[in-house]
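Here is the promised in-class demo. Please do not try to memorize the tokens; focus on the logic of going from shape to residues.
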């Protein structure tokens, strides 16, 4: 069996097995380009301006308490604390992130709410990179995500190499005749 036939067989087997995964990656990747379309604004106050003076920030614990109580009031949720936060010194804001895609943007100096959003794009991202498997079994080490990324990356590399060879080899054969 020639190298060309071996590559053709290998290429067909891998492509047919991984077709569904590559289709999902392509579809979710396209949807991620429009991630902002999957965001719902729960509350927005355009009248609040942010101040960029970092020395006037309220303590983070009190800002978190404010953000949590405002989110619970405006979105009818029952959170006790945030998962992570982002401080934007130049804008004078603090952004708190909660489970299920909620985020609260506060003025760092006054604690006034600027924006509350619910983002649905996280599920699309989790499907795209395989993290959804880890979340289903609550795996903190993200082994499925890492394994999925390695398998899909190496498979795509293999298909690219064999596909290029399958495309270019007949051109070389015709050229040599």
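The designed amino acids, position by position:
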């Amino acid at each position: 069996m020639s190298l060309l036939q071996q590559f053709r067989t290998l290429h067909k087997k891998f492509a047919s097995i991984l077709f569904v995964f590559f289709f999902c990656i392509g579809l979710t990747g396209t949807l991620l380009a429009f991630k902002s379309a999957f965001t719902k604004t729960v509350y927005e106050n355009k009248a609040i301006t942010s101040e960029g003076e970092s020395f006037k920030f309220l303590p983070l614990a009190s800002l978190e308490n404010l953000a949590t109580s405002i989110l619970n009031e405006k979105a009818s949720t029952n959170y006790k604390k945030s998962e992570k936060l982002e401080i934007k010194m130049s804008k004078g804001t603090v952004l708190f992130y909660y489970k299920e895609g909620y985020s609260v943007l506060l003025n760092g100096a006054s604690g006034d709410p600027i924006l509350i959003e619910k983002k649905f794009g996280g599920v699309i991202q989790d499907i795209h990179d395989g993290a959804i498997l880890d979340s289903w079994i609550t795996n903190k080490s993200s082994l499925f995500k890492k394994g999925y990324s390695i398998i899909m990356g190496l498979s795509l590399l293999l298909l690219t190499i064999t596909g290029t060879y399958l495309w270019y080899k007949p051109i070389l054969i015709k050229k040599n005749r």
